[in-house]
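Q: We require from you a single protein entry containing the residue sequence and its fold in token form, and nothing else.
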Amino acid sequence: MQHQRHLRSKTDKEQLGEVMKNIFDTVAELLLTNDKYKTEDGKLLKAVVYSDVMAMSEDLLTLLLSNEDVKETFFKDVQGTLVFDKQKFAWFMESKEFLPDSYTSYTNKIGLTHNGNFISQTNDVVLDFPYKDCVLEGGQDKDDQKRSEIFYNETIASDEISRMLAPKVFTNAKRYTAVSKNNIGGGAEKSISVEEETGITFNDNDNLIIKGNNLIAIASLLKRYEIKVKCIYIDPPYNTQNDSFNYNDSFNHSTWLTFMKNRLELAKKLLREDGSIFVQCDDNEYGYLKVLMDNIFNRDNFIATLVWHGRGGRQDSSFIAQVHESIICYAKNKSQAKFYKKSIVDTDRYPYNDERGKYKTQLIRKWGSNSKRTDRPNLFYGVKFNDETVFPILPDGEDGCWRWSENKLISEINNGNVEARKRKDGITELYQKIYQTREDKSVVYTSWIENRWVSESKNHLDELFGSSPFDYAKPESLIDELVSLATTVNDLVLDFHLGSGTTAAVAHKMGRRYIGVEQMDYIQDITVERLKKVLEGEQGGISKAQNWHGGGSFVYCELKEDANTLITTIQNATEDTIESVKSSIYADERIVPYLTKQELADADKDFENLTLEEKKQTLIKLVDKNKLYVNASDMDDETYQISDADKAFTKSFYEEA
């Protein structure tokens, strides 16, 4: 099917015929007359042009119509109306003859572009592949291990993911459990150690940490956890150059949205009907993400956007320094959503206090229109208060009127709901005491600005690891607020961009069950080690507020890799090894099935013209993404050599006998 489609798209391009041979330069020169379509150094921004083609931009169409050759080639007269052949122009742009570079030429030759169907533009599924930009040697200290993480990403057409999202085999499963021991010398206090157990099976009470691609991991969670998660929190990549990791140039705006869409659609299936999701982002993609989530979760289920003052603004900000981030909250089903609001002391709205609690006051004498005695004569009367008879007298000395009947005012005085104050002219005024109700105490504001949160996460990680491995890890107090709002004890919390493990650490200390997913190799050195310290009772973050002293357990496991090992090999390649890696990739049966050896051989001479990063990206594209991890349905296949322990754990996870 794929090979046929590739061949068909080639035929379509050939049908453009000789007319195209002289028009490539004409179109390029025409497009470059619009500054919107060119870089500062005068190169054509093909992605911007393509976006305007798909949007049928009036500016683009006007520009194309200004040249008779272009008009004749890409527009058709239909009963006096000019119709733009959008598909033909898109094929034209994708042809290797139109402004080819070495990378485009190479990928076209090996059939990765799929002209006419545009894998890179249909945005069916986006996978991302991290690689380290340095190779660590044994014995390096923590500071040496700081490094940026760079992601390759690839958009996969929907008809190429037949097995990608099927349940996967789990491997390397371990359970870490806190064990209390008496101190030497017989003291009353006990110390906590963490024991590691292998050869385990999974049960409902287990907390879970998974290493692997988060899209594929979420898909594997569905079989056990569909409609069981109470709260999801994620802090995904923000699609900026200032992120904790960077995305390659092809990870553009539309691809980032697809990356989010893929994951959010699956995540929604995991949520309970009374569940909620919180997605943190900055202004770079906020507006687009909000519309995307409106579409996925339904606009009617939008709860609020919380504004968090996360860090100081950059000194080199061109215009306005951004000092906040947004947390978008949706309910799965707003009519069934459950939120647990914290009591607060609102000293601005309730400035007074007595033995019954916080209260505000309101004048009992009527003010404004209809406030004179002549307006409401029945509401002018004297009432006894603290041995004084009080009348409703207006500030100008005229007789006024009360807001209440005499019986009600006397009743409120007897119930202690009235207080008196003297005006400057000596007249006594009576005020109603309005106490803060339980509902009014339980309020959540959309703006959270507490500067202590900005530095506490870094200080906490410094304490745990000697230095902070993350510049902008979210503080435990922020996650505590969200988890407290959305869950109660024993509810299930999910974070599939787990990072340093803050969400899991907070959930553990708060008595919630949790699932965390992370694909970076630091999951072993940072995330797992942090949670082990939580089991031991570390006292950073929210520990003191939660009276946390240790205990509990969690399970760690990994998605069983298959072709993903090829990607790791490619990522670790150097200038010296990339050729041998290429040869092994070409010979591997786990590359895309519709490429022939002849096609690879024909394209091979262009490989040497690519940069090292382009060579890696190209080889990663060759890997069959259906074979990244081993499917659970294949675990008895001897080809994969799945151990009995891995089979037992996988079956227990999917609740199979």
Observations:
- The radius of gyration is 33 Å.
- Residues 352-440 form one domain.
